[in-house]
User: Which sequence fits this backbone?
């Protein structure tokens, strides 16, 4: 993997991806942030050596370099998931590349379902902790110790100072920002009523199919990371209706402006 990382990094550096300060991963239905960027360069994933290719229809599949609030940023417009058939090493490869290029902070967004019924769709949740239900680890491969500590500490995977700043920004702008535990499952099927009950019992406030692998690798690289979920549906097992994916995407887009404001104000303060 070290050789692949060097090849990919060199390719992007030659295309002007220089001295980035912040990396941002955009989740399902969350692409409006691109409109706020002064784009300097962009490359489709399928043109980047050793990079996976986004296969989900609402994930664009571009790596974008530009300026946001005066900072050099790299944005993943579309991410990778286990349910696309990728390995956990594939899913997290871009995090390793962004860190190698020089980012000092990683911001992650996703769309998720609210397990905590005090949380409502259209609101945001700051991830304070997580539960990995994806059945594996992105660090479980031969030679991982060459890239960082094999036994990575996860006692506080989300950066407390960044989270505090995000909470302050939300309060100052009258944005509802819950704080909770995110459970990451494989998917792509949605959960059964029994699974929603199980997730609530084990302490999850929201559930999705991403984010945790990237956060594990960020901690492996000692890279400060924060993550915000856009809550797109309410997962009440006693009143469960069939899921409409187009409605979930529409709810993510509706709630996204608040997430954009949080990220922009945070980047301004870094």
Assistant:
């Amino acid at each position: 993997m070290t050789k692949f990382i060097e090849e990919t990094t060199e390719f992007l550096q030659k295309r002007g991806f220089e001295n980035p300060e912040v990396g941002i991963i955009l989740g399902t239905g969350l692409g409006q942030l691109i409109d706020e960027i002064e784009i300097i360069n962009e490359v489709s994933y399928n043109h980047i050596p050793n990079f996976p290719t986004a296969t989900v229809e609402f994930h664009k599949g571009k790596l974008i370099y530009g300026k946001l609030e005066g900072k050099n940023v790299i944005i993943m417009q579309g991410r990778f998931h286990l349910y696309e058939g990728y390995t956990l090493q594939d899913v997290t490869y871009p995090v390793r590349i962004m860190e190698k290029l020089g980012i000092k902070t990683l911001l992650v967004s996703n769309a998720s379902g609210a397990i905590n019924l005090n949380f409502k769709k259209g609101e945001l949740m700051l991830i304070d902790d997580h539960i990995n239900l994806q059945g594996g680890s992105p660090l479980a491969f031969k030679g991982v110790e060459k890239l960082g500590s094999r036994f990575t500490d996860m006692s506080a995977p989300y950066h407390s100072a960044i989270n505090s700043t995000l909470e302050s920004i939300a309060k100052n702008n009258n944005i509802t920002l819950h704080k909770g535990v995110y459970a990451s499952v494989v998917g792509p099927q949605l959960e059964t009523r029994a699974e929603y009950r199980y997730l609530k019992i084990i302490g999850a406030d929201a559930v999705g199919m991403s984010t945790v692998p990237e956060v594990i690798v960020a901690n492996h690289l000692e890279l400060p990371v924060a993550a915000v979920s856009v809550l797109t549906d309410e997962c009440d097992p006693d009143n469960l209706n069939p899921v409409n994916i187009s409605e979930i995407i529409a709810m993510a887009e509706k709630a996204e402006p608040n997430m954009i404001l949080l990220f922009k104000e945070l980047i301004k303060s870094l």
Notes: Residues 245-269 form the longest helix (25 residues).
